[in-house]
Amino acid sequence: MTDPEIRPADDWWRSAVVYQVYPRSFADADGDGTGDVNGIRARLPYLAELGVDAIWISPWYPSPLLDGGYDVADYRDINPEFGTLADADALITEAHALGLRILIDLVPNHCSWDHPWFKAALAAGKGSPERDLFWFRDSEDGLPPTNWPAAFGGGAWQQIDDGQWYLHLFDISQPDWNWDNPKVVEEFDSILRFWFDRGVDGFRIDVADSMAKDPALPDVPLHNGKPTREKYVGNPFYDQPGVHTIHQRWRAIADEYADTPQGPRVFVAEAWLSPAERLAQYVRPNELHSAFNFDALRAAWDAKELREVIDHTTDNLWAVGAPATWVLSNHDTIRHRTRYGRDRRDALEGAGVVPTDLELGLRRARAAALLELALPGGAYIYQGDELGLPEVEDLPEDVLDDPTWERSGHTVRGRDGCRVPIPWSGSEPPYGFGPGSGQPWLPQPADWAGLTAESQASDPSSHLNLYKQALRFRREHPALGEGRLIWDQDAPDGVLSFTRDPGFRCVVNLSSAPVALPEHQKVMLSSEPLPNGELPTDVTVWLEV
Q1: Can you tell me the distance from the alpha carbon of 267 to that of 205, in angstroms, rounded to the nearest whole number?
Q2: Which tens digits make up the pLDDT trace of 298-319?
Q3: Residue 393: is it exposed, middle or buried by C-beta count within 10 angstroms (0-12/13-18/19+)?
Q4: By C-alpha distance, which of 414, 419, 418, 415 is closest to 441?
Q5: Which comes out higher in pLDDT, residue 461 or 6?
Q6: Across all residues in the chain, what is the average pLDDT?
């Protein structure tokens, strides 16, 4: 096996910092309150100046937006609310001219009930070839075919007028594709080539562990009297062996483009799988290129737990020749400023559930950013994390858009709090999100004036400028990006300290008291001031050694 430190120069993805854009909430060019492709185009210079290597754009396809675009009605076009294919082509060209690569979302487990193939399946009737593109089943006694739960609440089967049921692992509006049908396989081959030929550099694979199902359709075990939602080994609809056949086929398609002037096309897997041994199966040499490491996202702000996650992740991914890929937040999770401002037991609970110390959360978010960007491999930044945005926990109920809100019977507020549109400039909403004073699709807090990109740009100590400095050092320093780390064995309890060759050390103080900094080492960057030559609690420092 090739050592992960020895790679061709065009394997950019092994150490890339990728910025996630959620299109509805990033920037609005036409003033209708919804972000769009031309809004992204207008902000490309901002992203280039920030210092990221690539942009991942969440679904921009035609969609009824019942699940924020992850209910796709047409995989080969752009949602008219977001723009046109010509706008997308221009974005790809302009991003490449700035040195930015473009990844887009692929949603292969399910489509929208507005997709023409699903509409045809409903019209065609039982036993038709159209229905075999999806999971339609009969059942006995009017009960669902299995007890499988849906991710957004309720059961995973919906009955239609002729008595059959269709499978939807997420929302009722998202019927699952039948990947045992060759026509589905060939359709997604074509979709990949359509976008690769238009110049995209890769795909983020939504729920990359879900496409294959156990054809026997066994029930899942009960937990506290309800069907388990655990992704246990042998789960009939997650992490089935058949997903690897699909990934291997896609990797072969991506490899067809390896020798083009644009360079490799790549995939990153979204697969919420633990432990890391399971995730490593998705990034073997003939499968996907990388995978999000969600164990780090779920870890408490605790030195022992974080070190265990880092070691377990890197050891298992290096064993298959893959890089680690670190992430702190995304469009599905509570923003990490809020998460780190909570008691560790409650950090991942829903909005409004537990009290949050946002100042503590911001301090830890700054420290976490430097830790993330110092670790070996790649990193992802969710839009607004570079501004230190918190979760918006008090959105009015009448604006909540996440299907979880409805499917849970209005008991789980869902993910809208991390999807509130970005504040760019000005002293009041909409903070430059779009032209004029029209309000965006989700309301922004009245106290975000100090968090805008404009207000932070001129403050050397701002969260935004911390990211810019860190990303600049990461590009320039030969120790950062892909490679290895060596833990410093003499670090005090509660302190993470590691070195990377040549000449770099990262120290994170997660203990309850300041600690002495190593002597005769120059400070490159710190997440907070360093009084009296000590490293305060909840602070990270980068040192030259």
Answers
A1: 7
A2: 999 999 999 999 999 999 999 9
A3: middle
A4: 419
A5: 461
A6: 94
Q: Are 286 and 273 in contact (CB under 8 A)?
A: no
Q: Which of 6, 98, 116, 121 is nearest to 52 (CA)?
A: 98
Whether residue 518 has a cis bond before it, omega within 30° of 0: no
Beta-ladder partners of 20: 56, 382
Q: What is the DSSP string of 302-348?
A: -HHHHHHHHHHHHHHHHHTT---EEES--TTS--HHHHTTS-GGGTT
Contact 128, 147 (CB under 8 A): no
Helices (H), 98-221: 116-124, 182-197
Residue 92 has pLDDT above 70, yes or no: yes
Which 8-state DSSP code applies to residue 4?
T
Alpha-carbon gap, residue 216 to 225, rounded angstroms:
23
- Nearest Cα to 384, choosing from 437, 446, 342, 433? 433
Dihedrals phi, psi of 295, to nearest 5 degrees = -60, -40
Q: Chain-centre distance of CA 482, in angstroms?
A: 20
Q: C-alpha distances in angstroms, 444 versus 340, 425, 533?
A: 21, 13, 40
Q: Tell me what pLDDT residue 142 has.
A: 87
**CB count in 10 Å sphere of residue 113:** 21
Q: Is the pLDDT of residue 349 over 60?
A: no
Residue 259 has pLDDT above 70, yes or no: yes
CA 185 to chain centre: 25
The confidence score (pLDDT) of residue 444 equals 98
The rounded distance, in Å, linking the Cα atoms of 445 and 392 is 8
State yes or no: pLDDT of 496 exceeds 90: yes
Active site residue 206: yes
- Give catalytic status of residue 256 as yes or no: yes
Give me the pLDDT at residue 10, please.
73
Strands (E), 113-188: 136-137, 157-159, 165-167
Instruction: Reply yes or no on whether the pLDDT at 2 is more than 50.
Output: no
Percent of the chain with pLDDT over 90: 89
Whether the CB-CB separation of 107 and 370 falls below 8 Å is answered with no
Give yes or no for residue 202 having a pLDDT over 70. yes
Confidence (pLDDT) at 350:
53
**Catalytically annotated residue among 36, 53, 87, 206:** 206
Exactly one of 219, 256, 259, 394 is catalytic; which is it?
256
